[in-house]
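quick one, two chains, predict together pls
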Amino acid sequence: MTSAITATGLRKSFGGTVVLDGIDLEVESGTTFSLLGPNGAGKTTTVQIMSTLIHADGGEVRVAGHDVARDPAAVRAAIGVTGQFSAVDNLLTGEENLLLMADLHHLGRAEGRRRAARLLGQFDLADAAAKTTMTYSGGMKRRLDLAMTLIGDPRIIFLDEPTTGLDPRSRRMMWQIIRELVAGGVTIFLTTQQLDEADELADRIAVLDHGKIVAAGSPEELKRSIPGAHVRLHFADATGLGAAAAALGGAFRHDDTLTLEVPSDGGAIAVRELLNRLGDTADEVDEVSVHTPDLDDVFFALTGHPTAETTPEMENAR
Amino acid sequence: MTTLTLAVRDSATMTRRSLRHVVRYPVTLVVAVAVPVLLLLLFVGVFGALKASLGPRASYIDYVMPGIIVMTAGYGSSVTAQGVNRDSTEGIIGRFRTMAISPTSMLNGYVVSALARTLVSAALVIGAAIGLGYRPTADAGQWLAAAGITVLLVLALTWLAVPFGLASKTAEGLTGFILIVQLLPFISSAFVPPDQMSGSVRWFAAHEPFTPIIDTLRGLLTGPTPSGGTVLAAVAWCVGLALAGYLWARVLVRRDLNR
């Protein structure tokens, strides 16, 4: 296996604020790598350095075998980038946007039209091809943006929060497209704030917090290090809570919110067994909810603090 | 393909893109012609009475027309700055910069399309002026020279518009540039000869870049033939401003995004 992307000791500050504080990464060719972290963690900055848009203050980054600082042109020829905000020409139609990219990749007229037509069909944009993208929904713009990235057939693709702000259907569609790309041998560098997205797509995940990698590994390795799912029981009053807590040993009791958290895999059988153990006390339960670990749990487990609120300065720095 | 042919090809692609914007939204071109024509009507119709103060000149419209051409170019450059700024803030410039194309191709696309758009509006404005009684006396050579000066002027203003558009983080940030290119012609020889102005305004009007450009155009189009010094000053201002804008724009597209 060869490395598509390597970063060693990557550093970047914006006006005194340290955004990346010595990052090491390695992404194998033909795999999906996910950089997971909250707003302001430095995900976009990492992508911007790797895609030659900004310079690092220190460290070395190699993409497709080329140093991003010394040979940005060779890196650009190998990559495709879809940023957090759709970078499409809003005064042109969807098809014209794709043909513009085809021309800039020097594809030739016939080949450009062929690829544009294929991508428009594949991304469910054929009906909107002749409309200006100003009229597109957020999901359509994001799909067009990715199609524009793909028209040059890049072998390494950077996706910066590709599903943020998308509705569930568009999100699943985006996931499917990403899986197909990887099946075709493309290397994907994906940033996300959502654990389930990284879990769903990535071969390896690195968790970024305040400019440092706090954990890295396969999704399974990462999930092993964080608390599992639990069932949350809410009670109408303290009497019910007390009775249930007595009936179930090993549950976490929250008197202020009248809830009980019971570790569980959250499956139907486990929930039924749990309620059976409660016996008559089950009648006191107002509400049952199953809680699966999310980014907050990962952060709490890995860093001992919840996902930090992003400060305005860090937001600007991104 | 060599680097040069690729750069030419990319510049052509970028030019086509910007020209398509004009064709798709012709209202830009309509306004670019309508505003100077309205100004012309204002000055000839409302302030035409001033012509008495100009001495034995045949017609005030012949006097103001070169200034109107300069204002057409100024309006064109503010449209360019807004377009560049829109691309910059909407993120498509970021996309172009991750692609294997030379940054100068992107800039060339803006400049070539702006040149075409502004020359078309200037031609339409001159056509309208002739309809209103403008009577240039230029021969073919003088028309050619006037066209050359106009091209230089548009290049200068466009190469300034591009870096202003790139540097501004918001559309509002462009107000300064737009005001300067649209107001400076008023304090020049465009509407009143500077020697009839007073004090520091006279000094400013006599020495600002638009004055020699306007005087050269006026001399070429309706005579008398402009002096060599005036022509030289006009050309020097245009080349100098274009060069400064070009160098600034090059710095901007090579430095880090969003800095």
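The radius of gyration of chain A is 23 Å.
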